[in-house]
Amino acid sequence: xVALEDLKTPAKNTWCPGCGNFGIxxxxxxxxxxxxxxxxxxxxxxxxxxxxxxxxxxNVNGFHGIHGRVLPLATGIxxxxxxxxxxxxxxxxxQYDEGWGHFSHAIRRNIDITLxxxxxxxxxxxxxxxxxTSQKGFKTKSTPFGSIPSMLxxxxxxxxxxxxxxxxxxxxxxxxxxxxxxxxxxxxxFAFIDVFQPCVxxxxxxxxxxxxxxxxxxxxxxxDVTDKGKALEKAFEWGDRIPIGIxxxxxxxxxxxxxxxVKGMPLTxxxxxxxxxxxxxxxxx
Length: 285
Ligand SMILES: Cc1ncc(C[n+]2csc(CCOP(=O)(O)OP(=O)(O)O)c2C)c(N)n1
Ligand code: SF4
Ligand SMILES: [Mg+2]
Description:
By secondary structure, this protein is α/β, with parallel strands linked by helices.
């Protein structure tokens, strides 16, 4: 069983002091410990952005992908080797802008992976421009008169894309987030957590104080996680009160359950001695 010390890497942490990413990093490490997973069983994938450094700071297998492509990578890894626990870490611009096209499709396939989005509602690494989840009116260098479009609603999109585990976390409540990450990894199927992650350097609107005044836990209000209608209602709650916790959860066959010919085996272990590819090659000539 892995200990916190084993998950440390020699990489120097370059996140700004107070960045919400620290809560996600610690929450993830604690969840791995509590689940009793071994380092070799886990692979993490990240996109490009401040969040992308997760792969440098957790001592498990890691793949630092390109901007917007966390889900294709995570999907490929899981299909090739279902024995691995695959967790993707994406940024809000990474997933909800550049990688948006992958979002609903990966969710509706119900591939058995976990996606954690570091939603700081801003482009952090490129020094503070708006993203799809930036609030209307948010003034940045690129939007000096305030952001014009309406905010995208990731949890509502996940619900209507047939998500089987849809949750929202807050990195300022690391203990709560640890529990959510643990539940997400245990879930058999696609698990999605949108995590509010304050960017203390470029997002002056959605700060720790802003979230502290608004977030409340669904489990403290007897929310029924099997009620999709109620989950959608909660997904649209925004303003003075913003819910965190599991919005919706259901058990359904995963994508790989229906790939009968691969028989739950890693692709590299499938017997190929008796496979003759000559007829296939001839058909292409
Ligand atoms: C294909 C591509 N487009 C644009 C960029 C430039 N770029 C680097 S990081 C980034 C976005 C970072 O924002 P986000 O995904 O929200 O991550 P954060 O830094 O906030 O964690 C962009 C657009 C890139 N690296 N690759
Ligand atoms: S720029 Fe924002 S998101 Fe990036 S490390 Fe600094 S506080 Fe964190
Ligand atoms: Mg961001």
